[in-house]
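Researcher: Let's continue the batch. This sequence belongs to Pirin, and it's 337 residues. Same format as the previous ones, please.
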Amino acid sequence: MKSSIKSIRPLGAQWPTQDPFLFCAYHHDIFPEGNPEMGPNTILSERNIGQDFSGKDGWSMYHGSKVPGFPAHPHKGFETVSIAEKGLVDHSDSLGAAGRFGNGDAQWMTAGGGVMHAEMFPLLNEETKNEVLLFQIWLNLPKSKKNVPAHFKMMWQEQIPIINKKDEKGLETSFKLIAGKFGDTEALAPAPDSYAADPLNEVAIWLIKADANATFKLPKVTSGVNRTLFFYEGDEIQIGGESVANGQAIVLGDQESYTIENGNKKAHFLYLQGKPINEKVVQHGPFVMNSNQEIQEAVGEFQRTQFGGWPWDSHEHVHDKSKGRFAIHADGKIENK
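Model: Same format as before. Here are the structure tokens for Pirin:
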């Protein structure tokens, strides 16, 4: 029987995605105990500070000099969906908005016409190690929305729908809905100008966890909708007549449901689907437009305006150590969790 799987590709540092997604970055770090400044309580002299993606000792500083993370940098013309399953992220941006989220929260940011933001990983635990597990998914915007006002929305873990399904053996699979619909359950609404805000685009972002030896199904989608199942933790699964080991991106067909039979270990997946935008993509770092001229204009705008400027004391701004999970939006709205 011919397999209905389109392709199977190994996962790298940036996971391969399909239109309307641009890529997915996966960060899993076991940081050491934190120091009073919320950085790692260890010597950093052996690391390439500012460009540390080494994974040495199981973690990286990334672009951070004292606290790990990604200091202030611009985005324009697309969206980021940051899912912080473990650990914390300190967000600050050029709109004056800020937040600390994590341990199951997600943040949806439509960069649109341009925004600068920083994402730092404060290490609050001084007595134990600090684990961070973060997905950042880049979702493209169509030409008609490349310049919408920048906006970010918090999706707190207490509000994110999780569906638990049991198979005939009583073994469970959970589906955490960041975007899209599963059966009669809908995810929280995305940012208002998001490509995912139109249900006709069938955008779905799910985190799936399956018990060892559990069986679960993925429903079929409308013809032409792209979808990929990222198998990032576990042993082996059976899908579409093939055995697939973990560490693979599985590109699925559209008008077909898939039954997945898990192996002998608990399995973790990220599932992405969406109707392709089918427009030319021209990318220059954190700028994603439709032509080289638009890229030049975007870079020029950033050089002139800094997308509103940076209102914080440091490009590596972190929030007070005593603060819990919170968000302050550009309109002054405050959320505390």
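Researcher: Any comment?
Model: The longest strand covers residues 21-31.
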